[in-house]
Write a structure and sequence with these properties.
With 221 residues, this protein is of the alpha/beta class. It has helices spanning 4-13, 18-30, 67-70, 78-89, 127-143, 155-164, 195-198, 205-219, and strands spanning 48-49, 55-59, 110-114, 149-153, 178-180, 186-190. The chain has a 6-stranded mixed β-sheet, with helices on both faces. The longest helix is centred in the middle third of the chain and has 17 residues, at 127-143. The two termini are 32 Å apart.
Length: 221
């Protein structure tokens, strides 16, 4: 019988995409100067959170010096700072930030993962890499039986989630946009909290906070 633990173990061992395996290993060897004394994870990064989640947050892929270093999604980089701060405000996270796998962060009623599970060069996985990895997302969807709200961080995640739920025609992606799948699952859109978006003001804290507040209202807590 499949389980979230089994999915996580397989992601950590996965070598299906040669380009990503080479890149994640190179980054883990070369390191960033600020983290030169740390041991990088340098493997596939599994999902993280509450197995009884009703909220599922889906991103693009692990960051080279974030989750590829720490081994936990959206941990150790500025994107994660924005995400977990917003989730904390909405009551989904026990802390407003995450720096390592053992920092005590607990997700409450939420699960965080990504479409692609290895850090891609330039944060741009190919379609073939996405397709080889998508099975993990499919299995998580089957196993996270309580999920009724999905927050998609960026269009890449949005397209993958809409495909998982068979939403045709595909709803448009825009920050704050929402659509309801045939089974009643609410799909919410947010710009990705990448530095490219947060440094330029394309995404502000009130904007991402509003998305998670909307998720909380939908869940009725």
């Amino acid at each position: 019988m499949d389980s979230l633990r089994q999915v996580s173990d397989e992601i950590c061992r996965c070598t299906a995409c040669p380009r990503l395996v080479q890149w994640r290993g190179q980054v883990a060897t070369d390191k960033r100067a600020a983290f030169r004394d740390e041991e990088y994870w340098g493997r596939g990064v599994p999902g993280f959170g509450d197995p009884a989640a009703r909220l599922w947050v889906v991103g693009l892929a692990p960051a080279a010096h974030g989750a590829n270093r720490t081994g936990r999604m959206f941990t150790g980089d500025r994107s994660g700072d924005w995400l977990y701060r917003a989730m904390h405000k909405a009551g989904f996270a026990s802390r407003a930030g995450s720096t390592s796998r053992d920092d005590g962060l607990v997700l409450r009623g939420a699960w965080v993962s990504s479409v692609v599970r290895c850090a891609p060069p330039g944060n741009k996985p190919t379609n073939d890499e996405r397709d080889r990895c998508i099975g993990y997302l499919e299995r998580e969807r089957r196993l996270l039986t309580g999920v009724s709200v999905v927050v998609c961080l960026g269009k890449f995640a949005h397209d993958a989630v809409c495909a998982q739920w068979g939403m045709r025609p595909r709803p448009r992606f825009a920050h704050g946009a929402e659509a309801t799948a045939a089974d009643g699952t609410l799909v919410l859109c947010s710009f990705h909290p990448s530095q490219q978006n947060t440094f330029t003001g394309k995404l502000t804290e009130p904007m991402i906070d509003a998305v998670f507040a909307r998720a909380r209202r939908q869940l009725g807590d």
